[in-house]
Design brief:
Length: 227
């Protein structure tokens, strides 16, 4: 389901964004069954997977809708083996992980190529940080850095290159696009991820996708109920 939205009841004017319906299915079921009185409308938006779908769907939606907070909810992998699988984290800074060029055996990102300055708005030193506000204090989760890629890391070479070059804990396919759009549209935002797997040579038998989705949705429901 791409660019699909659903309204729900919430005191804060809130938008929940997810790449796929599966990632927030328990939350959508919860709001379908909610009988709390309407105060201000909240919405859930399914954008589709990846940078392009996220950027298009979210930009189009924000052109005609205003929110107190936009929350991206999804699963992701982690380079950091000290983070337990299933952990829910708040990604306070994201950046591009594969937007650049291969130079023989080296990799140059767009900033190293000189195509864009590292502080060209909305970038800060080549990154896309969340401007933290008092409302972010309601998000009581571990704070980590994110890396966004078109092709998720699944071999030793790409894992080593990305982890050493960027030092980010969590990898996703949408985070940087979400940050970029929200920064350009000047809307408060937060990216929340639940860790489904360690970033290792691809082995889905070791993933904890079910547990990650359960934990993510439990957090979403608790968060909305406390607003």
């Amino acid at each position: 389901m791409v660019f699909a939205k659903k309204a729900f009841n919430c005191v804060m004017n809130l938008l929940i964004v997810a790449a796929t319906e599966a990632e927030i299915a328990p939350f959508l079921a919860y709001i379908d069954n909610s009988s709390s009185p309407l105060e201000r409308p909240g919405e859930a938006l399914i954008t589709g997977i990846g940078i392009l779908a996220t950027a298009y769907s979210l930009t189009k939606h924000l052109q005609s809708n205003k929110y107190d907070l936009v929350v991206q909810a999804g699963v992701g992998g982690t380079f950091d083996h000290s983070i337990p699988l299933g952990e829910v984290v708040f990604i306070t800074c994201d950046q591009y992980g594969d937007l650049g060029a291969e130079d023989h055996d080296d990799y140059l990102d767009i900033f190293e190529m000189g195509l864009i300055h590292r502080n060209t708005d909305p970038h800060r030193d080549g990154k896309l940080p969340v401007p933290l506000l008092p409302l972010h204090e309601k998000i009581r989760l571990p704070r980590v850095n994110g890396l966004t890629v078109n092709t998720v890391s699944g071999n030793e070479r790409s894992i080593k290159l990305r982890s050493e070059k960027y030092g980010c804990q969590v990898e996703s396919m949408e985070g940087a696009a979400f940050h970029y759009v929200c920064l350009r549209e000047n809307v408060p935002f937060a990216q929340i991820r639940s860790i489904s797997n360690y970033v290792t040579p691809r082995d889905k038998s070791q993933w904890k996708m079910k547990e990650a989705i359960i934990n993510l949705n439990n957090w979403l429901i608790d968060f909305v109920e406390t607003l």
